Each structure stands twice: as C-alpha cells, then as structure tokens.
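A favour, since you know our structure tokens better than I do. Go ahead and set the record down below.
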Amino acid sequence: MPAGKRILILASFMMEIVECGGALYKNALAGGDSHAAVLLCRSENRAATREAAAILKTSVEFLGFEQGHVTPDVAAKKKLVEVIRRCRPEICIMQDTVHSFTDLDPDRRLAMLLYLESLALASRDFARDQWPELAPCPLPTIYYMTPEHPNCVLNVADIWPVKEKAMNCLAGQQAFTARAMRSRLGADVLTALAGADHDQLSELELGQRLHDVFDRSFHIYHGHHSHARLAMAEPYRREGPFELEQLLP
C-alpha cells in the first residue's frame, strides 16, 4: 500500500465527508492524516458529522459559514487560508468546478471560487502578519469530488461497510432525502426503490433505504459499469496531468 498523505477536504456540506469517505479512510489506514473542514453545517448536525468522520478516521472542524451568505471576500479567504496553512495538505479534495455551476444546492458556486482563491493565497504572502507562525505552503494536488467527467476512480468495494456505517450516522441527511423523494416521486417509483411498505416507514427508515439504493448504484456505475476494472468506485478528477515514470496498466 502506498504511504499515506496529508489530505484536506474542503467540504461545503457534511455529506461530502462520506462521499469521499473511501479516499479519507484508506489514507488513514495507510498512515496518512485526513482532515475535513466543513463550510456549512447546522449545529444540530455537528455531532452526527463528527461521528461519521470518526468512523472514517478523519478529524473534522466546522467553519461556521451561514447558508446564503457565502462569498469569497477577504474575511472568508483569511478563514480558509488559516486552515490550509495549518493543515499543509499534500492533497486537497473539493467540489467539482464544472458541477458547482449548475448544482442547485445553495452557495456552491461562490464556495468553489472561495476554495480556489484560498488555495492560491495560502501559497503566497497573503495575511502573513496575521499568523506569523504559519508560513505559506506549497499548492497541493487538487482532486475534484464526484465530477461531471472523472479521470480517476478509487476502489471502495473492500471498505464499503465502513462507508455505509458512516452514511448511517447522518440521520438528518437521510430524513431530508426521504422528505424530498416523497414530494418528488410517485408511489410506484418509491415502491420500486424502497419496497411496497415505503408508506409505513418513518422518514429515517425510508431515507436509509433510499440512500442504500442510490449510493450503491452510484458507486457501481463508476466502477463495474464504467471502463474501470472495479466493482464499486469513488470518482474524482485530478487537476493537472499525472506525472508517471512509466505507463500503468
């Protein structure tokens, strides 16, 4: 197994920690240090997020931004730059720049600009007087999570139960999914996805069933049903070319 790295995930929402859970968990198993900085997370969801992150052997902090108020201004950049210089990541995972423009989750477009600007500024002399003990750090390798057009995939079949366990910590997200799907999908579709007894399930129970279907389908699609030779995979897009000594099979 390759040696672990210092990985920082700049997560807009708590779900992204689990979505990238395979990369974070496997990095920790290899002896690396995985850390998540979450931009937007309600106070009532923070304990569950910590629990999910702990399962994935990942530390977590909450940056305290407010939904609808994210902007790449100087104050916000300073907050992100401090995190980046403190963590000094070799690898940074963040949302996909292409997907964020059309995603209707709030704040994604401005968050993407904030992340990229902050990564650039963390490597320069920006705000040196504010944290004299935190020197500028080299730009990390960037991986965009769940991209429109992945150029690499990570095997998660061998650690799938860990990802599933972490997902089941996020009861608030699962209940939200259930409410959204009940309002959006007809009874026949919910029967196909969650079983004929879906109307007898609580929001949490329905959300867990739906996430099991959705999450398995997503990872199988990017593994077995793509050109990858993997059963289940997390998709990423690496920024910049891969540097190789020789071609890989």
